[in-house]
């Protein structure tokens, strides 16, 4: 089991700031 | 025309800062800061038209939903809101996004990620915080892990990162851990930021006019 807790956390949608740049 | 727009209107925006100053303190060029201003104005007037980014507007931009709460989006908002006055001002927006620029120093990205994970702002990432973040992620995803598995993953991560074995991860341990696992800060780089001028081409023409007039 090589799962790293921080890698799991990084899947959160809250980390994806790309929404800031999308045309609304 | 460009000058009229830049001097009379922008200076009235609360928290507005000179793009040349912001460019000198961040990886952005003056033109890119001007493009970010256009983006900032769009985001900061999406719900409350006051030229400041409120948390609801930040959430609306990220999730297309002003009411969706997310632990990490909350933390990022709080870190962007350097003055801790409940809004992100233009200068705060540009300086914080600068850390996410592909050309920003690695040290800055590592330090920002540490502060992000230091939920209670104690100067350390503690085991309880790490578990809380894993649970928050599981809560928003379809991923299902048993409590035993979560405990085991958190234990192993902590054992690997907490090299001083004092029950908490300090900044030096975090830096060493990230050096071994560079994927941990992949979220700290936004490729969009290299193309920010192209994303807002209408601004390039205006900025060029302004520069010629200067």
TrEMBL record, chain B:
What single Pfam family name could you report for this chain, choosing any that match?
EF-hand_7
List, in alphabetical order, the Gene Ontology terms for molecular function in this entry: calcium ion binding; kinase binding
What highest taxon heads this organism's lineage?
Eukaryota
- Keyword Calcium tagged: yes
* Listed Gene3D superfamilies: EF-hand
Ranges for domain EF-hand come to 68-103, 105-140, 149-184
| InterPro entries assigned | CNBL1-10 (IPR045198), EF-hand-dom_pair (IPR011992), EF_hand_dom (IPR002048)
SUPFAM superfamilies to which the protein is assigned, alphabetical: EF-hand
Gene Ontology terms describing biological process: calcium-mediated signaling
| Record has Repeat as a keyword | yes
TM stretches of this protein: none
The record, for PROSITE patterns, names: EF_HAND_2
* Principal localisation: membrane
Cite the SMART domains for this sequence: EFh
Instruction: List locations, semicolon-separated.
Output: Membrane
Q: Give the keywords, sorted.
A: Calcium, Membrane, Metal-binding, Repeat
Annotated GO CC locations: membrane
Query: Which family does the record assign?
Result: Belongs to the calcineurin regulatory subunit family.
Quaternary state and interactors: Homodimer. Interacts with CIPK.
Q: What functional role does this protein have? A: Acts as a calcium sensor. CBL proteins interact with CIPK serine-threonine protein kinases. Binding of a CBL protein to the regulatory NAF domain of a CIPK protein lead to the activation of the kinase in a calcium-dependent manner.
Q: What is this protein called?
A: Calcineurin B-like protein
What is the originating organism of this protein? Cicer arietinum
């Amino acid at each position: 089991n090589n799962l790293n807790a921080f890698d799991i956390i990084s899947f959160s949608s809250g980390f994806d700031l790309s929404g800031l740049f999308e045309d609304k | 025309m460009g000058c009229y727009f830049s001097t009379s209107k922008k200076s009235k925006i609360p928290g507005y800062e000179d793009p040349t100053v912001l460019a000198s303190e961040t990886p952005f060029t003056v033109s890119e800061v001007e493009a970010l201003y256009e983006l900032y104005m769009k985001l900061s007037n999406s719900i409350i038209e006051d030229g400041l980014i409120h948390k609801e507007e930040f959430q609306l931009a990220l999730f297309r939903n002003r009411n969706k709460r997310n632990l990490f989006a909350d933390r990022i908002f709080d870190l962007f809101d350097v003055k801790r006055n409940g809004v992100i001002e233009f200068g705060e927006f540009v300086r914080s996004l600068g850390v996410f620029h592909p050309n920003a120093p690695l040290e800055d990205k590592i330090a920002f990620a540490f502060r992000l994970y230091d939920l209670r702002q104690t100067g350390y990432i503690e085991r309880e915080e790490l578990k809380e973040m894993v649970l928050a992620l599981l809560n928003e995803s379809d991923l299902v892990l048993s409590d035993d598995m979560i405990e085991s993953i958190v234990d192993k991560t902590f054992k690997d990162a907490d090299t001083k074995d004092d029950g908490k991860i300090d900044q030096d341990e975090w830096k060493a851990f990230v050096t071994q696992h560079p994927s941990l800060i992949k979220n700290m780089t936004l490729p969009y930021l290299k193309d920010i001028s192209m994303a807002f081409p209408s601004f390039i023409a205006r900025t060029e006019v302004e520069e010629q007039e200067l």
